[in-house]
């Protein structure tokens, strides 16, 4: 095999040439790369710039604008608010006004809506947890071959339209709907229950729509768990319930937290479900924000509501990100 | 240890809870009656009505176009974002970036919608762009919230990928950009496809953000569906739901079939490994 | 002529590692390492898991930057030179074969990056596959190969660019024992045939002894000893190396006589004086240890002729015998309570046991057998 003889010099890759410093011959490409590198424009920097700039522009700045407009005055016109700073008679005129926030406190409608949103989101999250945990557990402990298809079944409804799934519940829960017909047919009730357009329907709708978001993170932690731990516990004499409570449950805590936040945070600001399934007296803050914006056209107040809602949610969002980040770091290690 | 059957039973009940409403929709889409409770006979009436509804069809076509553009944009940005989180180690402002990527996963849509609208309005006032609200603003908004989902999918795929594949390519003389396109991208291609489909679905389905940032003449399918069911039940929606379910089910079945076949071939190839 | 460039003061090292330290956060993975590796060497980095071998190798390849110190390859400072511009190739522990490419394309990958003409790529890939006996598998994908075949693809891929320096991270680690032994020799043959300098990471001391021209023993990030396999085995410079390579008996004692040509150590543990034919470089009275390999200890039932000298001879009771076929390993308890290992070839058939459990035996060794250690 003559070409393998190291003493024979066939064209050797750049940089591997004997004796030469390992610098590739300077082609035009190298020169361009060199210049951009000196300007601090490495490929890596360029890659970072794209998504970073996008998120700053379309995610970060919008929140600053919401903050700004929440202290502007409403006005008739397009857009329906005043400028914050204006030159009036050669002087700077500052129009800052907290009446948007003021209204939040004056009218206890908003306070009630906040509290009711928290209550509804909390109870629905609990329902998702109670229903979702056994489901996630069952999938995680199923034979490995069956886990994929079962998981698929959980995700599948998500690929069909959210709106349509809520709509399906409208037809089930209405006065002459399936549920009432069934209950009356069984003789359990004699008058149809008023479920549609009530808080109960909202609980059902949120639990139903958000259930997969609870199951997936739960499954992820339960599946990673070492099942020999349970066998070891059983071997050491723990009863199944006891080992569930002392081993499985604590170890799945990250999944419980992640799943609960994934349900709770968006549920607090939910708009579609309360407006389709809730009654006119079902107060939820997302719905009030929508009404302020689209019906009253009071953008400053809508912004104030958004800022106040965000202030509620900053804590939970930070906890959620902490858990997200922990997974990322674990992955990177 | 005896395994309790209880979780399996509860799983069955839970799945019934998840699927019952969808099954009902499908069944009643063939009902020859306005009522969604009494079965009076088989009919394709609602499908005819749906297909005759030009407003609905136009909105559907618009939604599909928006979803397509969104998915393409979100895949590019989301893949880069996933790459940054999984491969770039520490860079300046990483914590802020990670926060901005994961916040849209949970951020209530009314807040995102309002914030984006106010951005577009302010930008128009300041620089005159984007002029008015419409398809463009919807796409920009959709890319913003769907790219987070793509980034999560891509990132978790990259984390499970063996880094030494990329190192080996670099060791053999490939520069980072080349490594990305020739090694990383082909290997994570399935995750990119999933990310694309996810962004497409999310965009197609979005009502709240779209309502905020859309303008006259850019009414999407969810907006039409919402305004019609808000006033009560409409059987055409059942027909629409059935079509969506049929498309999704076909897609999933096809993907499942292809995956199973791939796995079978691979298994056979692996079993003959080592033999000439 | 013997290949010993490290004894030649005129020889220029091909790889020079100067006081290199690598820290991850406040954990020091590689600690002030200096090494010179010469052209054509088969150099092994040997150490337990987590001793920093891979980290050192990755700094040579350019995947990690030293926190302190410098690395020269062929006289060029490697600081800031990215992996794709280094005259070095690496074979990864996981092989890192590109799963979406055929064997052929995996091997051709490196040549393609350098814009080598298509025809030349084809011939060089073919030659390489021939060398590692994989020609019939050229069109297969990595998952269609056995473990041993994958290992050879990885080797071919890292050699095809004819690097002057090849880095191998546990190249045989994923193979089963039989295949590993067979592949050791193939690896050495290929290395000699191509004249490439190999730096190999391994945790298997037998493997390192079989293949290497020299070995660097690593412990907690620093180099414990560098030397030929013989030097490392026969003249360990510390208790760590002595105990890491093979098995050894270590006796604690005090220097009685310290002369340029011999040393005498009194050891209560051994129950006799230890006479060693090399300088201890220690003052009389100093505390030290003497290491003696088990195969250098003879075990007899009869009292040796020079037993009266009280030097390099002691007695004890046989507690354990492990019969390995070719040799037997005896564990003997001395009166001090110290347990000593001795190995003896089974020259006679085992049917008539010359020495058995609870026998009182004499142990003795030659003056050149022991090595004085200071730590
Ligand atoms: N990227 C890294 N970050 C933090 N610690 C690391 C990293 N790489 C290696 N280490 C640590 O450095 C030590 C040495 O690792 P390594 O060089 O892989 O050892 P070896 O190959 O000898 O088993 C280990 O304790 C390991 O945990
Ligand atoms: Mg290692």
UniProtKB/TrEMBL annotation, chain A:
Residues 1-10 have a biased composition (Polar residues). The keyword Metal-binding does not apply. CDD domains: TM_PBP2. GO terms for biological process: transmembrane transport. Its main location: membrane. Residues 11-21 have a biased composition (Low complexity). It is a multi-pass membrane protein. Residues 114-320 form the ABC transmembrane type-1 domain. It is found in: Cell membrane. InterPro entries: MetI-like (IPR000515), MetI-like_sf (IPR035906). One of its GO terms (cellular component) is plasma membrane. Signal peptide: none annotated. Pfam families: BPD_transp_1. Belongs to the binding-protein-dependent transport system permease family. CysTW subfamily. This is Putrescine transport system permease protein. It comes from Nitrospirillum amazonense.
Automatic annotation (TrEMBL), chain B:
SUPFAM superfamilies: MetI-like. It holds the Pfam family BPD_transp_1. GO terms for cellular component: plasma membrane. It is found in: Cell membrane. One of its GO terms (biological process) is transmembrane transport. It is a multi-pass membrane protein. The chain crosses the membrane at residues 9-30, 59-83, 95-123, 135-158, 179-202, 237-258. InterPro entries: Bact_Polyamine_Transport (IPR051789), MetI-like (IPR000515), MetI-like_sf (IPR035906). Keywords: Cell membrane, Membrane, Transmembrane, Transmembrane helix, Transport. This is Putrescine transport system permease protein.
TrEMBL record, chain C:
Pfam families: ABC_tran, TOBE_2. The gene is potA. It is an enzyme of class 7 (translocase). GO terms for cellular component: ATP-binding cassette (ABC) transporter complex. Keywords: ATP-binding, Cell inner membrane, Cell membrane, Membrane, Nucleotide-binding, Translocase, Transport. This is Spermidine/putrescine import ATP-binding protein PotA. Transmembrane segments: none annotated. The complex is composed of two ATP-binding proteins (PotA), two transmembrane proteins (PotB and PotC) and a solute-binding protein (PotD). GO terms for molecular function: ABC-type polyamine transporter activity; ATP binding; ATP hydrolysis activity. Belongs to the ABC transporter superfamily. Spermidine/putrescine importer (TC 3.A.1.11.1) family.
């Amino acid at each position: 095999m003559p070409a393998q003889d190291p003493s024979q010099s066939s064209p050797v890759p750049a940089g591997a040439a004997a004796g030469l410093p390992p610098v590739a011959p300077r082609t035009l490409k190298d020169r361009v790369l060199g210049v951009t590198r000196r300007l601090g424009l490495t490929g890596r920097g360029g890659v970072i710039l794209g998504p970073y700039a996008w998120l700053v522009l379309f995610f970060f700045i919008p929140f600053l604008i919401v903050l700004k407009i929440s202290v502007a005055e409403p006005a008739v016109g397009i857009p329906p608010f005043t400028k914050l700073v204006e030159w009036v008679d050669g002087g700077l005129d500052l129009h800052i006004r907290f009446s948007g926030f003021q209204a939040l406190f004056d009218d206890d409608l908003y306070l009630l809506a906040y509290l009711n949103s928290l209550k509804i989101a909390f109870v629905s999250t609990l329902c998702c947890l109670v229903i979702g945990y056994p489901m996630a557990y069952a999938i995680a402990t199923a034979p490995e071959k069956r886990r994929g298809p079962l998981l698929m079944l959980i995700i599948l409804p998500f690929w069909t339209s959210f709106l349509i799934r809520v709509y399906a519940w409208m037809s089930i829960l209405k006065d002459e709907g399936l549920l009432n017909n069934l209950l009356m047919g069984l003789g359990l009730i004699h008058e149809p229950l008023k479920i549609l357009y009530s808080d109960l329907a909202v609980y059902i709708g949120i639990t139903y729509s958000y259930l997969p978001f609870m199951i997936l993170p739960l499954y992820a932690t339960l599946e990673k768990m070492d099942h020999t731990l349970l066998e070891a516990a059983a071997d050491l004499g723990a009863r199944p319930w006891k080992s569930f409570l002392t081993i499985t449950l604590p170890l799945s805590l990250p999944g419980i937290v992640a799943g609960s936040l994934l349900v709770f945070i968006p549920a607090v600001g939910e708009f579609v479900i309360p407006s389709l399934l809730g009654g006119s007296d079902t107060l939820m803050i997302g719905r009030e924000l929508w009404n302020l914006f689209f019906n009253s056209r009071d953008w400053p107040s809508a912004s104030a509501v958004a800022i106040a809602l965000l202030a509620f949610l900053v804590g939970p969002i930070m906890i959620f990100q902490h858990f997200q980040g922990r997974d990322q770091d674990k992955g990177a290690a | 240890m005896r395994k309790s059957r209880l979780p399996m039973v509860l799983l069955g009940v839970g799945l019934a809870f998840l699927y019952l409403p969808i099954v009902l929709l499908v069944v009643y889409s063939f009902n020859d009656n306005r009522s969604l409770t009494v079965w009076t006979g088989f009919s394709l009436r609602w499908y005819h009505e749906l297909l005759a509804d030009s407003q609905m069809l136009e909105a559907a076509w618009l939604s599909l176009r928006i979803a397509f553009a969104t998915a393409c944009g979100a895949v590019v940005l989301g893949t880069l974002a996933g790459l940054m989180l999984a491969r770039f180690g520490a860079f300046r402002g990483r914590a802020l970036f990670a926060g901005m990527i994961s916040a849209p996963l949970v951020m209530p849509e009314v807040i995102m919608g309002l914030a984006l609208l106010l951005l577009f309005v302010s930008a128009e006032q300041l620089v005159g762009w984007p002029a008015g609200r419409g398809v463009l603003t919807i796409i920009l908004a959709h890319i913003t919230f769907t790219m987070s989902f793509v980034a999560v999918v891509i990132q978790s795929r990259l984390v499970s990928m063996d880094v030494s594949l990329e190192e080996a390519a670099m060791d053999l003389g490939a520069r980072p950009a080349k490594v990305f396109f020739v090694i990383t991208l082909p290997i994570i291609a399935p995750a990119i496809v999933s990310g694309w489909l996810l962004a497409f679905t999310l965009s197609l389905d979005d009502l709240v953000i779209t309502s905020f940032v859309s303008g006259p003449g850019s009414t999407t399918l969810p907006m039409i569906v919402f305004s019609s069911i808000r006033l009560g039940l409409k059987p055409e929606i059942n027909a629409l739901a059935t079509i969506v379910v049929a498309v999704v089910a076909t897609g999933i079945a096809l993907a499942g079939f292809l995956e199973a076949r791939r796995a079978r071939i691979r298994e056979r190839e692996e079993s003959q490994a080592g033999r000439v | 002529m013997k290949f010993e460039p490290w004894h030649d003061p005129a020889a220029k090292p091909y790889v020079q590692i100067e006081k290199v330290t690598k820290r991850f956060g406040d954990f020091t993975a590689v600690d002030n390492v200096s090494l010179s590796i010469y052209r054509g060497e088969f150099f092994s980095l040997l150490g337990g898991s987590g001793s920093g071998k891979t980290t050192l190798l990755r700094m040579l390849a350019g995947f990690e930057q030293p926190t302190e110190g410098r690395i020269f390859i062929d006289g060029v400072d490697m600081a800031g030179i990215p992996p794709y511009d280094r005259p070095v190739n690496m074979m990864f522990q996981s092989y890192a074969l590109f799963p979406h490419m055929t064997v052929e394309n995996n091997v051709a990958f490196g040549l393609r990056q350098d814009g080598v003409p298509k025809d030349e790529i084809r011939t060089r890939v073919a030659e390489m596959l021939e060398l590692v006996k994989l020609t019939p598998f050229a069109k297969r994908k990595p998952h269609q190969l056995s473990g041993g075949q994958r290992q050879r693809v990885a080797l071919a891929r890292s050699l095809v660019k004819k690097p002057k320096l090849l880095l191998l991270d546990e190249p045989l680690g994923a193979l089963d024992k039989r295949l590993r032994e067979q592949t050791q020799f193939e690896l050495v043959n290929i290395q000699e045939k191509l004249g490439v300098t190999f730096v190999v990471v391994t945790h298997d001391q037998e493997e390192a002894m079989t293949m290497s021209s020299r070995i660097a023993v690593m412990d907690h990030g620093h180099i414990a000893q560098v030397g030929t396999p013989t030097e490392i085995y026969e003249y360990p410079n510390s208790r760590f190396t002595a105990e890491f390579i093979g098995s050894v008996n270590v006796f604690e004692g005090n220097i009685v006589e310290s002369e340029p040509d011999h040393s005498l150590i009194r050891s209560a543990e051994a129950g006799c004086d230890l006479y060693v034919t090399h300088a201890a470089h220690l003052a009389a009275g100093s505390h030290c240890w003497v290491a003696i390999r088990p195969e250098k200890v003879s075990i007899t039932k009869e009292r040796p002729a020079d037993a009266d000298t009280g030097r390099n001879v002691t007695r004890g009771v046989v507690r354990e015998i492990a019969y390995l076929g070719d040799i037997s390993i005896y564990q003997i308890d001395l009166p001090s309570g110290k347990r000593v290992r001795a190995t003896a070839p089974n020259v006679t058939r085992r049917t008539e046991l010359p020495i058995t459990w609870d026998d009182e035996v004499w142990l003795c060794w030659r003056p050149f057998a022991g090595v004085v250690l200071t730590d």
